[in-house]
Every structure is written in structure tokens, then in C-alpha cells.
């Protein structure tokens, strides 16, 4: 869902660009100064878009197992889109295993129904269907979107993530060659949940770098 944000007329979902616009509007109205953005999965994808669409409002971004890697285009994402429809409990258990670096069997059993309910909500189904029909050239990230990114970026990735399409990490590492990175062993698609302390330390380190960078600019000017 989208919290208290309103939806476009006659639609139960927002496009990625619309979500980026909402985020930029929030930064302008509620923060009022350049902010550091941290986003997981689609949130990382939106953070990249917002850094380009509202550069003056973004100080830096941290991408946690981010989505949007172009890979082989639409063909790379079709199996992903089909899987997250979660038509049955077998698929729910598969997705749980793909997401997490390690999950106890009782949690796998207890969580499967809630995971299916989450992904079968109308807002998710219609958003995914729209993405599957969209032009990948317009929606997926390009190498230049990262290489020429107008703000500093950091990368956090769970090395046991088998949920995002294969090759996603390599795309971000290759096109953010100078970005500080936290690569977590025995961690999956949600590092902020599986390794919250390590992620918090990285975010603080990255924020300190941004502050030092801003201070240096001020002293030079």
C-alpha cells in the first residue's frame, strides 16, 4: 500500500515515476533540505529515480538489494513477476527460501499464508501486471543511471538473496564502481531485517561521509 498517499483516479496502484514524485513531494514538504535515502528492492529503484528527478532534494542514496537491473530485459523479470503472484503454498515456501538467508522451519510454516496474502492484494497484483506490460526500456534502470548518478551512492546486499533475478548484484556493483558496499554473507533479500545492526552501522558511516563531503564543500566555497 501507500500509507495515507492518495491514488491516481481510476487506478489502485502508482507507477514508479508517480511514487518517485510522491517521495520528492514529501521531501520538499516535510524535510525541506537534501536528505539521504535508503531503499530496499523497489525502494532502491525509486531512490535512483528520485535522485535524478529531484536532485536538489537528495543528498545521497543507499541501495539495499535494489530492484530495477535491466539484465536481459523483460525476459529476466517475467519469471519473477509470475513467482510473486504466489498462487499456492508451495510457491509461498519457495519465495520465503529465496528471500531469507536462513529461516527456521516453524517460521516458514507460520509465514507462508501472510506472504501469500501480501502479494495477492489488488494493489500488488495490478502494479506487477502493469510492470510486466510496460516497456522495459522506459522502466528498468540503465547503466548510465548509476554511472552518472548525480549524488553519492552506497550498496548493501545480502549474498544469499535468491529472490531478485540473477545478475542484479553484479549490475549494481559494475555500475557503481566507487560506491562503498556492505556485502553480507548468510543474509538474503531483506538485510535490514536479517542484519539490522550491520546495516545501521553502514548507514551511519555513509551519512558521516555525506556530512564530511558537505562540510568540505562549504569550506572550499
UniProtKB/TrEMBL annotation:
Residues 1-199 form the AB hydrolase-1 domain. Gene3D superfamilies: alpha/beta hydrolase. PANTHER family: ALPHA/BETA-HYDROLASES SUPERFAMILY PROTEIN, LIPASE-RELATED. This is AB hydrolase-1 domain-containing protein.
